[in-house]
Automatic annotation (TrEMBL):
Bilayer-spanning residue ranges: 32-51
Lineage of the organism: Bacteria, Bacillati, Bacillota, Bacilli, Bacillales
Name recorded for this polypeptide: DUF2798 domain-containing protein
Keywords per UniProt: Membrane, Transmembrane, Transmembrane helix
Alphabetical list of Pfam families matching this protein: DUF2798
Organism (species): Brevibacillus fluminis
């Protein structure tokens, strides 16, 4: 995802004067700061609810 974010930033804003390694590191940190909490708090809860609601009952019916 960091590489994808870096490529999209380059496509939108052009090539900056900083190095690619620095740009990748900054993109990685931004991605970690924003995406990791979103995954833990929001998306993880939604997917857990969907799996418990729809997937788990169908699995218990097959084994019974």
């Amino acid at each position: 995802m960091s590489f994808y974010g870096m490529v999209t930033a380059y496509m939108n804003h052009g090539l900056p004067t900083e190095s690619l390694v620095r740009s990748y590191g900054l993109t990685f940190l931004k991605n970690f700061v924003f995406a990791f909490p979103l995954q833990l708090i929001v998306m993880g809860s939604i997917i857990r609810f969907v799996f418990v609601k729809f997937v788990k009952p169908s699995l218990s019916l097959k084994t019974a």
